[in-house]
UniProtKB/TrEMBL annotation:
Classification via Gene3D superfamilies: CytochromE C oxidase copper chaperone (1.10.287.1130)
Protein name, entry field: CHCH domain-containing protein
UniProt-listed InterPro entries: Cys_alpha_HP_mot_SF
Highest taxon of source: Eukaryota
Organism of origin: Ensete ventricosum
Length: 68
């Protein structure tokens, strides 16, 4: 039987907000709605602090194009 890792509290809301900030074009109204959703979640779940687990590929950063 496979072990299932529990989803961190408000993880989907936090991830949606982070991904919104990198979208092009930037949609400020959408990001503000997502911020409000995250705020509601942390108040409902009584979250006091977030932490980020270390991962080798926590963010995808495109390599810069270097001219030879």
């Amino acid at each position: 039987m496979e072990a299932v890792t529990p989803q961190p509290v408000c993880a989907m809301e936090a991830l949606a907000l982070l991904n919104c900030t990198v979208e092009t074009p930037f949609d400020r109204d959408k990001c503000l709605r997502l911020l409000d959703a995250l705020r509601s979640c942390v108040l409902e779940k009584k979250v006091k602090k977030f932490s980020v687990a270390e991962q080798s590929h926590a963010a995808v950063v495109p390599k810069s194009k270097e001219k030879p």
